[in-house]
Amino acid sequence: MTDFTFHDLTTATGESKEILEQVQKGYGFVPNLFGYMAEAPIALKAYLQLNELLSESSIPAGQLQVALLAISKKNECDFCSTAHHAMSKNYGSNEQTVSAILNGTDIEDLQDRVLVKTVTAILENKGWVSEDLLNTFFEAGFTKQQYFELMVVVAIKTLSNYTNHVTKPEVNPELIKMIG
Q1: DSSP codes, 1-26
Q2: What pLDDT, on a 0 to 100 scale, did the predictor assign at position 71?
Q3: What is the chain's percent helix, strand, coil content, to nearest 5?
Q4: Is 17 inside a domain boundary?
Q5: Domain containing residue 89
Q6: 136-178 residue pLDDT tens
Q7: Is residue 24 part of a domain?
Q8: Which residue of 9, 38, 82, 147 sits 20 to 30 Å from the alpha carbon of 134, by its own alpha carbon?
Q9: Is residue 145 part of a domain?
Q10: pLDDT digits (tens, 9 = 90+) for 2-38
Q11: In a domain, 151, yes or no
Q12: pLDDT on residue 180
């Protein structure tokens, strides 16, 4: 099995070190995912830039965390599932929705249910989403802009979930503490 190098503030060099230092300042810690991504500064920069772009999304922050969690759970990424569970608390996600995603049960909130169904359909069907589901998405109050924003959700989760699949980072204690 390939052993990927974990970088921290003492072992990272060059551009990766600069990025990790900025992450430390901004987050108060360096998520272990970033320690592995630091092997390739372009991957680390891509993740952070996509994350910054998502902060500009017209999808409410709580629902954005729901979409990120749903993809992480679907991709069987424990690290990101824990991270988005933690972040969902900070961004006011519907607690029943989060619990349902984590436990594989029914989502009660109609808009959250449609959001999760749509973003997972984009992932599972490689972007081929039925006209019926698109209509349901729009009827639930979402916009065409938000549909395309879900593509960014899938892109960032592909990058982070797939990185985590091969590197298997431990979940940071800071993330676990956020869940409470």
Answers
A1: ---PPP--TTT--HHHHHHHHHHHHH
A2: 98
A3: 70, 0, 30
A4: no
A5: 61-167
A6: 999 999 999 999 999 999 999 999 999 999 999 999 999 999 9
A7: no
A8: 82
A9: yes
A10: 899 999 999 999 999 999 999 999 999 999 999 999 9
A11: yes
A12: 82
Q: Which is nearest to 110 in space by CA: 59, 63, 56, 57?
A: 63
Angle 46-4-43 from CA coordinates, rounded to 5°: 5
Place of tokens 């933690």: 86
What token pair was written down for 16? 């990766």
Backbone angles phi, psi at 129, to 5 degrees: -105, 135
CA distance 30 to 24: 5
Total domains, the chain: 1
Find the CATH number of the domain harbouring 79.
1.20.1290.10
| Token pair belonging to 58 | 């017209």
**Contact call for residues 46 and 159 (beta carbons, < 8 A):** yes
